Amino acid sequence: MEIIFGQNKKEQLEPVQAKVTGSIPAWLQGTLLRNGPGMHTVGESKYNHWFDGLALLHSFSIRDGEVFYRSKYLQSDTYIANIEANRIVVSEFGTMAYPDPCKNIFSKAFSYLSHTIPDFTDNCLINIMKCGEDFYATTETNYIRKIDPQTLETLEKVDYRKYVAVNLATSHPHYDEAGNVLNMGTSVVDKGRTKYVIFKIPATVPDSKKKGKSPVKHSEVFCSIPSRSLLSPSYYHSFGVTENYVVFLEQPFKLDILKMATAYMRGVSWASCMSFDREDKTYIHIIDQRTRKPVPTKFYTDPMVVFHHVNAYEEDGCVLFDVIAYEDSSLYQLFYLANLNKDFEEKSRLTSVPTLRRFAVPLHVDKDAEVGSNLVKVSSTTATALKEKDGHVYCQPEVLYEGLELPRINYAYNGKPYRYIFAAEVQWSPVPTKILKYDILTKSSLKWSEESCWPAEPLFVPTPGAKDEDDVPCRPSRDRGVQGPHHKSHCQLSIAYVPEISAFGRQTEDNQGSTVILRYTENLNY
Ligand SMILES: [Fe+2]
Questions:
Q1: CB within 8 A of 44, min separation 6: which ones?
Q2: Model pLDDT for residues 161-194, shown as the tens digit of each residue
Q3: What is the DSSP letter of 235?
Q4: What's the gap in Å between 139 CA and the centre of ligand 1?
């Protein structure tokens, strides 16, 4: 495990052909892009946290049943500065770095001051975002890096702050059917008012506005929500959308701005300036996309930590939204490289299992409703929303499933009623060992696992023109190769094996090579 996590990964600049077993459907054509940490040491220096590693881009080009893999380090300013200095000189969230350790006391003092409002890293290692025809590697700072999805070349660096006032932004934007991007960020320095900013990046730029070609240059603020606390805004990793609303959780997992401003001088990382306040509440903001204003009722729930929203939709006057929630913030702590030793898989334990929770938020609160009454009238969930004396509404979720993370859905159902979640199963160990398909309607699940296999986030690709949300050609059975109820075809497990990958996927026992499982309908276990 230490080898997998802590080892610097080699680039595969020339495409290599994967060995495919099973058959890849003819309609599956395109490129799968993945992003993640690949380099954890530079020269003698080492990052503290796994999420700090330098971004390694991966692509799997799928054409006519063949798969070609390549990978390349993102040539960010951060990467280049580090490689040139042969040590880490740019700070990441969990690692504070000092560019000029030998400078005299006066220049050091100046340097400390200039880091009061830090210029964050452009090591965009979390996700890939599509804006119009452009692709960007993203992280959670104000910087994104354009990339060429074919060659994985790094192109221009874009600073969100030039277009919208955000210092931090999520790596999980939403897309509407036209391809417009909706994202959120936090502004900590704009006129002294800390706020959360929802912003839109258009899919296309009208000819009359084509000053610059990039749609990002035409970003516009959609709505902003003042932070409850000027000096300690919430951390968030994603948000939810329905057809007409945005769901934002202001959770008690917070950034301490004053501590962050002095972190450089104190020699501590920015991650150490985050804390979970288990005495506080989680506030639920519902923003009406038509008026661009938050719904005025104050909704809240118990303290929790959410990284991933799964989906959200409207039903019978309520916004229903599903999240993967933790009781505390222990997940981040587990991934410090010092913990990623050979005992990691066995000994590292979360203090709470990530649970799939469904919340129901009533959009219209009856003024005459009795205090203590449940305002949720949706029969499909046991989630409640209790009216309180002061008019606030206390929401309690329905727990749907315990032990999953990295959720994905059929994205055609984003913001709409839906039934299936594809995820990695995560119990007390933070290392996923199974892929899961969860059926919300029947509350049943299908799982796939294999010896020495630690799956990454699954990605659902529907057959073109598919009618069913899960679009599985046959229902998986305990018996291999048995035809499903619709008798459309035999189930198949198609595997593309790439010896050159050692970063993620289906790891072989000797840690040489990984596999991308393209379809996994055969070996699912109940
Ligand atoms: Fe994520």
A1: 87
A2: 999 999 999 999 999 999 999 999 999 865 668 9
A3: P
A4: 10
What are the Cα distances from residue 407, in Å, to 148, 300, 381, 410, 420? 26, 23, 20, 11, 10
DSSP, collapsed to helix, strand or coil, labels residue 204 as: coil
**Ligand 1 centroid – CA 308 distance (Å):** 6
According to the model, what pLDDT value does residue 472 have? 56
Q: Do residues 225 and 295 lie in contact, with contact meaning Cβ atoms separated by under 8 Å?
A: no
- Ligand 1 centroid–CA 171 distance in Å is 7
Task: Pick the closest to residue 233 from 287, 273, 176, 264 (CA basis).
Answer: 273
Strands (DSSP E) contained in 350-419 are 355-362, 384-387, 393-396, 398-402, 404-408
Distance 198 CA to ligand 1 centre (A): 18
Distance 384 CA to ligand 1 centre (A): 27
Contact 506, 447 (CB under 8 A): no
d(CA 466, ligand 1 centre) in Å: 27
The CA 423 to ligand 1 mean position distance, Å, reads 12
The continuous run of DSSP H or E covering 2 comes out as helix 2-6
Q: How confident is the model at residue 18 (pLDDT cuts 50, 70, 90)?
A: confident
